[in-house]
Amino acid sequence: MRTFLKAVLILCLLMTLILVPPVVAMLLGYSVWSGAMVSAGALGLLLFFFLMRFLWSRYRERKFVNGLVSKGASAEDKAIASEQRKQWKMSVAELKKSHLRVKGDPLYVLPWYMVMGESGTGKSTAIENSGLVTNLAQPPRVSGVSGTRNCEWWFFNEAIVLDTAGRYATHQDESQDKREWHSFLKQLARYRKKEPLNGLVVTVSAKTLLTGTRDEIEEEGRKIRDRINELMKVIGARFPIYLLVTKCDLIQGMTEFCEQLPDAVYEQVFGSINGDMQCDASFYLSSSFAQVTKKLRNYRLQVARSLGAESAQARVLFFPEEFQGIESRLKTFADAAFSSNVYQEPPFLRGLFFSSARQSGHPFSKFPEAARLLKGKGGDGEQDAADTSYFLHDLFSKILPTDRNIHVPTRRLIEGKRRLKVMAFSSLALASLTLGVLLSYSFSQNLSMVREVQREYAMVPSLRGELAEDVDTLERLRLLIRNVEEKNESRLLPDFGLDHCSALERDLKVRYCDRFQGVFLAFYDTKMGDAVVNFSGETSEGELAGVFPHYIRRINLIAARNQGADPEALNALPQPDFKSLLIPDGHWDNPSVLESVSAQYLDYLAWASPKMLAGEKAMLASWLSYGMKNEELSLSWVVTWCNGLGGIPSLTLAEFWEGSHHLSDEPFVGPAFTLKGREQVFGMLTELEQALESPLEIAQKKSTFLAWYHEAYAQSWHRFATYFPKGQETVTGKEESISTLVRMGTQDNPYFALLSEMALELSFFPSEVEESPLWMEPIFEFEAIRQHALLSTQKKKGVPNVRVPGKGAKFLYRIKKVAGPVGKEDQVPEAVAAGADAFNRYAEGLSGMSTAALSPAGAFALAGTAFTEDPVSGGSAVRTAMHGEESLKIVMETHRTPRALFRTLLRGPFDYLWADTCNTAGRYLQDVWDETVLSEIQGVYNKKSISGLLFGKGGAVKRFVAGPAKPFIGKKSKKGYYAKEVAGRSIPFTDSLFTYVTRGTYSVKSEKAVFKVTIEGLPTDINPEATIQPHITTLELESVDKTQVLTNRNYRAQEVFDWSPKEGGAVTLTIGVGDLVLEKKYIGGWAFAKFIKDFSNGRHEFRIRDFPEERASLKRKGVRYIRVKYKMTGTKPILRMMNNVAGKPPEVIVAWLD
């Protein structure tokens, strides 16, 4: 049932492989042929898989010993294997040199037999005493501990016998003996591939059968069976096996029995032949043993009568029974070695034989009591030693050679060959079928593609002279060819001679090239050629930069194509820009069209004929040569071309400054004036020389251009570096300011980064430009010193194998210019070491300033220290940076070269940090002013009170000036208060602060003085139309201890007034007009000063609104004003004091730049 189900399953699988692919192909819209091809391919792969699987299994069976022989082999094992191979080579060489080669292959003329058995069974003795002769010298034999060491060769006239070591049969040392045995099989299969072995003689000692236990005998039989199975696997055949029982003289009575036989009988065999290859070994052994025992019983009486001794007669009489005693154990051995089982193919037991090669030792008896009785009657017990050979000669000389060709293949081999034939035939049939299917499929594919191309090609319009439409037409044709090309290249199978698709592809490419070059490109080339003829000195650089690179690169592409470059190599070369060719005026720009034309041109180069390309190249070269010979044109268009590439960005302030604000008219370094741009410039010059017939055509122009180019290169960088400090104006906002402050304290600050970048970008000037600008010299020197400082710092930190990184290595040669030649590589000039030390101090100071400037308190503390410490011995970060910078300048002042630009850049990070520190410290002082001064007078409006709070004893302003602001404010007798300066910077105090402090201080001092003022009263006037006249004017000054009065009755009156701001009181002015008394009162500590100020011009005019209570009366009497006049002396100090009254303090005392 299982076999039937398996057959049904295989049939279903085959039907699936045959029917499903065509059906699926039809459903997906493909042809039935494609499905049939898939079916044929699947079946072919399936058969090929089974065939390979079978061959692989056979290969593994043939080579299974290889791995085992070598795996885990020790030195001794390898030596033994080498000895074994050497013995085989010697023996085979001896055979090949013998006369056997006349009869054929010496290895196959005689049959080969192997003798196998446990050590000590007498294999070698039986072969040696068999009585066979040989005319061939025997190879040397090597004996082991218990007999043959590995294998002995016996070259007899009848056969070649291989006497194997007993270790091979029983594997006493499992690992070593097994490897030797497998190595032996490998040699056997190697030298006798056609007919490895004709028979096997298995020996078992009668002593083992008589004395061994059944388990031991069965174990020995199983080991022999394993060796037989391995032999059958290697040989692939069932060969005859002869079971030879040796040392039968140890069976009681065997020697006496044989001695009575005729000598001619000794050479015969004692045993039987199995004529049925399918006969079970156990059954054969039983029947054979029974026959032999029966014959022995028939002969014993006849043999016994010929013996004289009674004991000898008894042994002969008992011999058949003694002989029968080994039957059961021999059967046990045979069952284990030869019986059939369901797992292994049974070996062919050809015969059972008994022998004795020599007589020695004590025979064993089945009847021990009878043996003792016979011994007591004169039996010796120990037989006499003799070398008589019994029943061996004919076994090796007749029986074995006669059976040479009776071996048959194993069932496994037969089934394998049958499967191989079936699969080979099926594969051949399927291959024929597949070939037919493939031919049909190829024809179908060719026909389908031809029809498809005819249909699509008919839809491609002709070129009309319109750029966009023509490009689209050519693109459609190109994609059609690409599609055909891809299909042809993607075909997994050959076309089998049906190359219509390939021919169609070639024809389409010819048509495409004719259209692209002959119709499309020729029109635009002609227009551009006419433009080249009209080029003059007034032609713009942009126009030249569009035309000449286009010509150059097209010429070089064609040259590369003519030299055999493939499409990938062409695509890797510099590509021409078709914008200048197709759109010379630049008013219309369609990137997709330009990309299409570039792709179309590359395919045109790949597909065009050499003749067509040669004509195009000659035309382009003539126009290029004409343009280069034009004396009015220079090569400066190369710079314009480089700047317009777009691949290299311009160098701007944003590369160094992190600010987001953009400055107007900001300079930049164009792409052509960078190292990458310079590579592009020189690359274009190289391309130009390659495109021309001779580079000498532009030699003079190139020299002139390079001189101009290098000068413009240097000027561009000088202009950018000069403007660079303004980059700090791009920094806006708190985050950008903090980030910039942090960077300024590192070696990656914008200024050092610019100097490093300039040193790199300008590095070629000293070696490649004859007159290098002198202003570059300190930049190179600084970079060399900076890199050495970095090197020394890393070494101090214990970094092993320090090397100057990157671009710094390019400037170490500048060290020689700074301090002269160096002795050894590990020595550094003193000037350089000093410069590096100065730079490190400068960098250390900048780092400290950066850290302090991040907080107002830190900036205030740093600024306070810098403003108060000794300029020479001071150790603040500011002084450290200043000293480091100054020392660095001194070290580098070895050449009198223009250094103004370098000094500006070198001091740039310090100036930025110091300015920010001063501004931040100013903000800190502003906060202190707000907290200690402005908060002190909140709610106070009296000037005298304010003055006392701020400028009196312990006043807030006095504490501020003498405390937090003291390091930053100075005072001189003439100049008064001023802001101190350090390194060209001061705290940005406002002028209002110094004015306020000056006035407040003066005001406080004036309050303690006593002023004497002489006042002379003059007549009081009134407006003419008034109906009344003033008649008395009284001035009264109150003080702490007295009241001073001046009365004027319209004639002169004079009085001296003593007044002190500290003790002054109210001032009352009384005017008598008619019957009215008018009163004007000045109050407060400064009342008298206010009165003097009102009369500072000698008179004061009062309006009737100044007397609200009497206003109506005055108006009725026609009074509009009353003019009071006093002549006063000694008032200037008071007026000056009034002007210097501090009053309310300013809210903003520090102005800083945001």
From TrEMBL:
It comes from the Bacteria. GO terms for molecular function: hydrolase activity. The chain crosses the membrane at residues 35-56, 422-443. Pfam families: IcmF-related_N. Keywords: Hydrolase, Membrane, Transmembrane, Transmembrane helix. Residues 175-425 form the Type VI secretion system component TssM1 N-terminal domain. This is p-loop containing nucleoside triphosphate hydrolase. It comes from Desulfoluna butyratoxydans. The lineage of its organism: Bacteria, Pseudomonadati, Thermodesulfobacteriota, Desulfobacteria, Desulfobacterales.
